[in-house]
Design goal:
By secondary structure, this protein is mostly helical. It has a domain of 82 residues. It is built from five helices and no strands. Helix 4 packs antiparallel against helix 5. The radius of gyration is 28 Å and the shape is rod-shaped. About 11% of the residues have low confidence.
């Protein structure tokens, strides 16, 4: 009977110690040591930086959407003014639709755009803008 009581007591002590052993005490797996939990509760610099980054990401996404809308308008105006043929406008719209699909895929996978994804979309929009300018001048 004593052995059972001692084994149960030892098991209870181990179970009580497990949550404490799982604590990181400010250390993360990548070696960063910071009092991030305290900053989160106090609204410290880490939280302000995250809010700033969230706002920056939202602004970046809005700019990309505005650029897409502007390019679509320019294609429509070029078609109406007969500066673009129907075939050229269709090619440009197809490329714009591909960029929009890529953006939706990025947002669907991460919920937010990373800087690399935003840069990729901006490069593609720049290329499309340059192609549109070239076709409008020709």
């Amino acid at each position: 009977m004593k052995k059972i009581i001692i084994a149960a007591t030892a098991a209870a002590a181990l179970m009580a110690a497990m949550p404490a052993a799982a604590q990181t005490y400010g250390h993360s797996r990548d070696g960063y040591r910071g009092d991030r939990a305290a900053q989160v509760y106090r609204g410290g610099p880490a939280v302000r930086a995250e809010r700033r980054d969230d706002r920056r990401d939202w602004i970046q996404l809005r700019r990309i959407d505005q650029r897409q809308a502007q390019i679509a308008r320019r294609i429509d105006v070029g078609l109406r003014q007969r500066a673009l043929t129907y075939h050229e406008a269709r090619i440009l719209r197809t490329k714009l639709n591909q960029i929009e699909r890529l953006e939706r895929r990025y947002v669907r996978s991460n919920r937010d755009l990373t800087r690399a994804e935003a840069r990729n979309l901006n490069i593609r929009l720049d290329q499309l803008t340059w192609e549109l300018r070239y076709r409008l001048r020709a």
